[in-house]
Amino acid sequence: MHKLNVLAFGPSNFILTLIELKPYLKFNLSSDVNNLDKNPTNFDILFFHEEALINKEIKEIIDKYHSIKILASVKNKISNNYDSILKLPTTLNEINSIIESTAAKKIFNINSSIKIKEYLLDKNEKKISKHNQSVILTEKEIQLLEIFLKNMKPISKNKILSLVWNYAPEADTHTVETHIYRLRKKINDKFLDEKFIKNDKDGYYL
């Protein structure tokens, strides 16, 4: 992971404390809101004191920024709008730790979540979901979906056998048909979607 770029918001004493700690921080700190230009693409994390939210303009910037948000607060309850909360008062080690751990968790979750049609595949929790409903998948079912996603055209049974089970193309087995049947049934039973996995003379596809 590259050294994270963090933009801090908050009252002067909060910012001054961070600036004093700057030589010991494990991330790049910026507190110049004027460089933000309402488009904070240069920053990995917005790190802000709860008092910053009183400023309507700052709050709008924070709310519309689709990335990692860490709130520093004397309260111990995290808002659904933010990724983490840093309980105040705090220490240098806690600041460095929450910045790094929150970023690592966010990146992991992003890499673990895959959009498939109107569904979301969560590789970490091994489930596929839609409209607050989900169904658990096996490792092989996840592999099948990833192969379908990577290919823009139908994939033959033999190709799937080779990619997922390392079978020789000439292997005589119903493994693929069985797994795809079970996967189709899971999706249809939960989401009433009979056309999730399609097939034609050339193979299977989404």
Question: How would you explain this protein's 3D organization?
Answer:
This protein has 206 residues and is an alpha/beta fold. It folds into two domains: 5-111, Rossmann fold; 117-205, Winged helix-like DNA-binding domain superfamily/Winged helix DNA-binding domain (Arc Repressor Mutant, subunit A, Orthogonal Bundle). The protein contains six helices and eleven strands. It has helices spanning 12-21, 56-64, 92-112, 139-150, 157-165, 175-191; strands spanning 5-9, 28-30, 45-49, 68-73, 84-87, 113-116, 119-122, 127-130, 133-136, 198-200, 203-205. The longest helix is centred in the middle third of the chain and has 21 residues, at 92-112. The mean pLDDT is 86.
Query: What's the average pLDDT?
Result: 86
Number of domains: 2
What is the overall number of helices?
6
Sketch the topology as an H/E string, one letter per element.
EHEEHEEHEEEEHHHEE
What is the molecular shape? elongated
Question: Largest beta sheet, briefly?
Answer: 5 strands, parallel
The CATH fourth-level homologous superfamily of the largest domain: Response regulator
Can you name the CATH architecture of the largest domain?
3-Layer(aba) Sandwich
The quaternary organization reads as single chain
Q: What is CATH's topology name of the largest domain?
A: Rossmann fold
**CA-based gyration radius:** 23 Å
- Measured as a percent range, the helix fraction is 25-40%
Largest beta sheet: what is the strand line-up? 2-1-3-4-5
CATH class of the largest domain: Alpha Beta
- Please report which band the strand proportion falls in: under 5%, 5-15%, 15-25%, 25-35%, 35-45% or over 45%: 15-25%
Low-pLDDT runs: none
Q: What structural category characterises the helix and strand content?
A: alpha/beta
The overall strand count is 11
CA-CA gap between termini: 33 Å
